Amino acid sequence: MQRFVIRRLGALAVTLLFSSFVIYGAMYLAPGTPESFLVQGRTVSPEVLASIRAQYGLDDPFLLRYWHWLTGVLTGDLGESLTTRQDVASLLASRIPTTVWLTAYAALLIVVFGVVAGVVAGLRGGLLDTAVLLGSSVGFAVPTFFAALLLMSVFSVTLGWFPVFGAGSGFSDRILHLTLPAVALALPAAAVVARITRTAVVEERDTEHVSVALARGVPWRTVARRHIVRNAMLPVTTIVGVNIAALVAGATVVEHAFTLDGVGALLINAVQQKDFAVVQAVALVLVAVFGVVNLVIDVLYAVIDPRVQLGGESA
């Protein structure tokens, strides 16, 4: 297990390095230049423009600029924002808590409503199964941004139950402010998880070993818990992990809709302004989250089913 984790962490480091180069190159080739945002559309002389480019190192070749950024990151320096002149690490530190609260809240909703609804529908069937299938189809078909607007219109503007803007302060106030954004963010993923969980449970419920266990007089609750739900959790764990990892990227739309000061909103502004250091830092966070979540999923496989092999080793 330990060797497997070390190998995966090494692979994650290589992935981060490759991703950083690709993203930096994409930003370099994208239309527009950083200095055009720095001058805010004003007409400046070529001398002033050349001075700006020299001040921010924009005249350096691409590989040299990337190398300077990379060596800084390896020493703990994420660079400085071109537009705000703030330390990128400080910018991220002020934005990450909001995104963490939002994604954690949405992940909890996905697990509670997606997994639980799928398990109950798969075990009981009937009208409840039909309701879950219908609800998951509707939830998956509703875009996140439209869900955000609909939730704001109904529960904030019409009913006045939840605030519209801001992330709140303190635990209870933050939960109140982030409820609608978390629901909008979790809705499509919860629908997918519920559908896949229901399918996995139904497949396990109809297997031969379940029928044999019931024929031997094993109580239904024991069979459901040990033979059906536990075996169904392997594919469910994968889809839950993938959707939770995707929440960090999907939070960008929700943060923009609810004007939250999270990492997603910071990324949108940085891309528009070609703020290389900020884009790179946020991109590294996103890639790292995906890598860590995938590692956690692989480890959970071994916890759920000890027969699973990790990297050629017995868990």
TrEMBL record:
PROSITE patterns: ABC_TM1. SUPFAM superfamilies: MetI-like. The chain crosses the membrane at residues 9-30, 100-123, 130-155, 175-196, 234-258, 278-304. GO terms for cellular component: plasma membrane. One of its GO terms (molecular function) is dipeptide transmembrane transporter activity. Gene3D superfamilies: MetI-like. Keywords: Cell membrane, Membrane, Transmembrane, Transmembrane helix, Transport. Its main location: membrane. Belongs to the binding-protein-dependent transport system permease family. This is Peptide/nickel transport system permease protein. It comes from Streptosporangium sandarakinum. The lineage of its organism: Bacteria, Bacillati, Actinomycetota, Actinomycetes, Streptosporangiales.
